[in-house]
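Predict both folds.
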Amino acid sequence: MPKETFFNLTENKKSKLIEAAEQEFARAPLHEASIANIIKTAGIPRGSFYQYFSDKEDLYFFLLDSKLQTSKKNFIKALEKHHGDIFEAFIKIYNDFLITMPDEEEHNFIKNALLFATYRVENTFADIFDSTSDREHFNRLMELIDHKPFKDKEEVISILQMIGAIAFHNSIVKLTNKLSDEVAIKQFRIQMNFIKYGVYTEKSK
């Protein structure tokens, strides 16, 4: 997380630093990104950077978490729209994630995060459905989710984690294999239907 000195900056100075960081992390993955490029674009001394963030990882995960806050809100809206159906809600936000990426810089930032994902990056994405990272958000999820198809709360949590992992993996496959949005969404829907209805349907028994 940023240090208190970052939050004490004027909005203009904070915006310049964030924009510079977004440009750099869109240009290169975390391990190749350069603090020198960030401070040059932002127009600040190197010493000032370390007054705001411990290191580039600190800044990077602050940005990534900030971007995923939108996904949290969208998942809540999707659950409301689909009357608590986890699977349809996931398909909706997966579709939105692919289709409505704001701009090329945003796309490249997320692309680098996925293609050069570490355990910590994956955990940051998983925090959207984690009860420990944002209790208020998680409680709202549990209120909205239709629990009837599940045995108990633990099963609901397991399904959330499973689908989240599948969505994360599919995003990487899409980028690696350069799949179209339509193909990626179709494959994801097939996988969701497998989980929702089971591989062995009544027709195939």
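Second protein follows, with its predicted structure tokens after the sequence.
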Amino acid sequence: MNGPDSPQGRPLLVVDDDRKLCALIRDYLEPLGWKVTMCHHGAEGLEEAKIGDYEAVILDVMMPGMDGFELLRELRKSSNVPVLMLTAMGDEADRIVGLELGADDYLPKTFSSRELLARLRAVTRRAVLTTPKEDSFDDIVAGPLRVNEATHVVTLRDTPLDLTTLEFSILLSLMKAKGRVKSREDLLEDVSERRFDIFDRSIDVHISQLRKKLGDDAKKPRFILTVRGVGYRFDEGGLA
């Protein structure tokens, strides 16, 4: 295993028991400016992800012992590092579970090298856009909900909310829309800066998780309203 302090390159952790695939990912990405650390066991990968200063983690779902879901669940207790999950045959159930646990994106294991690079760049770009900066912005306030774009701090009734990078970006996009409806495609473009199929429903999973963290009722939401057939709208009145 090589660590993130190895010579130059953007540090990336790959956790997968398929050693051949890990080597292929490393051989493709390192000439493009990444420095790849490989772990082949879930528990080992979790410890490395916690102590290493990585820009992103590529994580396989199916591993013996601690699988990718368990690893992600534990990792999200202490880290918001961007996570790109690999799923066998692009199974929808795996994708939904991964997104609900806080994955930033997913790829079926039949991915092309170009798609891997594009999605990796997208998840790391989102993280950079929401990383705290020295310059401060005024808080965006809606009733008891307060969002600071610079520090990535969100509080509801003075209680901090633990949002993933993608959840924060979605909330920020909706709040900045000032009551206007945002389509799924609009939201996907805002948070990822790349085009998705307009029927991609992964945004719905992130909205669902965001509602839970806002303490919202999924059946009768007050804060993030569903506009049937169109998209979503943030309702400032619901926060009164």
